[in-house]
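Hello support,

Our group uses your service weekly, and this is the first time we've seen a run hang past the timeout. The protein is Shikimate dehydrogenase (NADP(+)). I'm not sure whether the cause is the sequence or the server load. Input pasted verbatim:
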Amino acid sequence: MDAKTKLVGLIGHPVEHSLSPVMHNAAFKDKNLNYVYLAFDVKPERLRFVVDGAKALGMVGFNVTIPHKVEIIKYLDQLSEEAKLIGAVNTVKIEDDIAIGYNTDGIGARRALEEEIGKVKDKKIVIFGAGGAARAVAFELAKDNFVVIANRTLEKAKKLAKEIEEKLNREVGYSDLNVDLEDVDIVINATPVGMYPNVNEKPIVSKERLRKDMVVMDLVYNPLETTLLKEAKKVGAKTIDGLGMLIYQGAEAFKIWTGVEPNIEVMRESILKVLKN
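Update from on-call engineer: The timeout came from a worker crash unrelated to the input. Re-ran successfully.
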């Protein structure tokens, strides 16, 4: 690092579990870019200061994670079309003192899913959660699949489902956590259930409700094998951990900030090295 180093980072609460700094800094080094990525723990009551602070420091941009993906919007100057559609932001670019919000979560999740099982179209998909990540994934996958939003608070599930229906003109279902999984093709956990440090937390779905012919994806990547994925493996279901989404959404953010395509394998290996230790 020197006086010319460009600063990007992550804001969230908490952030100590995040491996985004490891991944991005490895990618910057690989491309010989003079950037550094840091994680900042920002409590909700301090969020209103972040954008002005980032501008004042000359930051190039930052990622946004739980619980700020929706709330950050009110402090931004502009939104990409995708971020407007989804109503959540996970990436911010600052250029000419203008903070622009983007969302790379949806495309990141689709790329991770399709890397494992091929093109995803005309499937029945249940997404657990109704927060920022769930919004992005639901909007993306509802474009060409039947999606059901399942959330602990039914009203939040209903609200998100109706919003997607109105914006995409596609039918979207909603339910509480006891959603019927009988004819579902893909189950996606977009909640923090099972995330470090709560690695032994009761899974959002038990093995009794899962089937061998299902695909079960968990957006949590720390740990790679969550309690949900352990349950899915017990019945022989195809499992997909959160590493792919982390990498692909990160790669899209990397391009937004730098204009350069990162090396996906460098990003993947940097994370696996940490998780194996």
